[in-house]
Design brief:
mainly alpha; 84% helix; 0% strand; globular
Length: 448
């Protein structure tokens, strides 16, 4: 039974994983193409990416509420309820996306107050503004993607995400370098390329949702179901806000780890970036498993099927354990080979190989904590997991890392040891909580 459940979760997760990797690749396209212009423009892209990462992941966290509520209503076989959650979730995401974009526009001059190279800050300003406005179509695209994912049609969002890569590369080629008579906008051209790409895939997905026979039945139900209700918005926020906080706390902890490691010199920072980039790539698979497990668990939660919830949970955690173990083995065996893809400096390679051993240690805990958080989200348990994640990173992980790095002079290794401690606590506490709740006789009991 567990093997069958694992296969179903993997089948659902695969398109989500490809879609997540495609979204990560959009940033790589900007980085690669702008980097060909000048290293200062590349530095400006890195600066903007650091600034915009937290509002970006916060916006994505809000959209997760759509897939959870839609999946639950779908499990209850209530198409009007699905349509109702789609309508309320979409407009809730519109409000949050506007707040994020307007907030970035209002605080755009922060680039001049971060002790950066003046020319880098000047180059970053227009790119930051364009990337801020691109959050609006991106969040709305993700809201609709979460709707289709919640109905378990995960290939729709995947195909559009993959299609965005050549589109973004082509627009960047036109606007960054000024081909075919277009103005040479350089870094600003990359911003326009991303904004236009995200707008196009949002509009295409909107058209698919409105017109495709699979989804149009939910649009037809809109005549009676499309009403804004405070109770529904409250239910969406109950999932969306903690989801955003969970993702933001983790992203913030890893972002701060880079700043802390940077105090030990350029070699340590370069090695940290290599190891973290590799860990981030392996995490995309864990994130896909988490979202797929969350959708399937939410569907079973809607049917109040405790046995199914337990089976999905056990099989998904087991899959995460196996996957994390394979990644750990890969990092250990190839720790001196993989960094050569990024850099050939002997000092950087040696330092990166050392940090990859630490990354190997937390592969299992990173994968299982992501999956367990998703499973708990699927059964609408949000408050306690958010608290546990906050403790993991900000009470344990970062403080322990700082103590080891600065007081005990462990340097970058100390910061990474702190990450291991935080991720281990998150993995154990979240997995145990899901196990405890899933064993309740009445899984529909409201959790706290």
């Amino acid at each position: 039974m567990l093997r069958s459940e694992a296969r179903q979760t993997l089948s659902l997760a695969f398109p989500i994983i490809l879609g997540e990797m495609a979204q990560m690749s959009l940033r790589l396209i900007d980085t690669a193409m702008v980097g060909a212009v000048s290293y200062k423009q590349l530095a400006a892209v890195a600066l903007v990416t650091s600034i915009i990462n937290i509002p970006f992941v916060f916006g994505i966290g809000i959209t997760l509420a759509v897939s959870q509520t839609v999946s639950m209503a779908h499990g209850q076989k209530q198409p009007q309820k699905v349509s109702h959650y789609l309508y309320n979730g979409f407009w809730l995401c519109v409000v949050f996306a506007l707040m994020l974009s307007l907030g970035i526009e209002a605080s755009k001059h922060i680039v001049f107050h971060l002790d950066q190279d003046p020319e880098v800050a000047r180059l970053a300003l227009p790119y930051l503004r364009l990337m801020g406005w691109s959050l609006l179509p991106m969040v709305l695209f993700m809201a609709l993607k979460q709707f289709t994912d919640g109905l378990e049609y995960t290939r729709t969002g995947m195909l559009l995400s993959l299609a965005s890569l050549p589109l973004n590369a082509f627009l960047n080629w036109l606007l960054v370098f000024g081909h075919w008579g277009f103005p040479r906008l350089e870094i600003a051209g990359a911003g326009w390329g991303t904004l236009l790409t995200r707008t196009v895939i949002f509009l295409v997905l909107l058209l698919i949702v409105l017109k495709h026979p699979i989804f149009s039945s939910y649009v037809r139900d809109g005549k009676t179901a499309w009403r804004i209700r405070k109770q529904t918005l409250g239910a969406l926020l109950h999932i969306g806000i903690p989801s955003s906080l969970q993702i933001s706390m983790e992203a913030g902890a890893f972002a701060l780890s880079g700043i802390l490691v940077g105090t030990f010199g350029a070699v340590s920072l370069a090695a940290h970036q290599i190891a973290l980039s590799l860990a981030s790539m392996t995490f995309m698979v864990s994130l896909g498993l988490s979202q797929a497990g969350s959708i399937r668990t939410s569907n079973a939660f809607g049917r109040k099927d405790r046995t199914k919830i337990s089976a999905i949970g056990k099989s998904t955690v087991l899959t995460a354990l196996i996957y994390g173990g394979l990644c750990a083995l890969l990092f250990i065996v190839l720790r001196r080979k993989i960094p050569l893809i990024f850099n050939d400096d002997p000092a950087v390679i040696t330092a990166a190989a050392w940090l990859l051993l630490f990354a190997a240690v937390f592969q299992v805990s990173d994968s299982t904590q992501a999956v367990s958080a998703g499973l708990l989200r699927g059964i609408k348990d949000m408050k306690i997991p958010t608290l546990l994640i906050g403790i993991s990173y900000w009470i344990l992980g970062i403080p322990v890392g700082c103590l080891l790095a600065f007081h005990y002079k462990m340097g970058a290794a100390g910061i990474w040891t702190g990450l291991i401690v935080g991720l281990s606590f998150a993995s154990i506490s979240l997995t145990m909580r899901f196990r405890k709740i899933s064993m309740k006789n009445d899984i529909s009991l409201k959790t706290r």
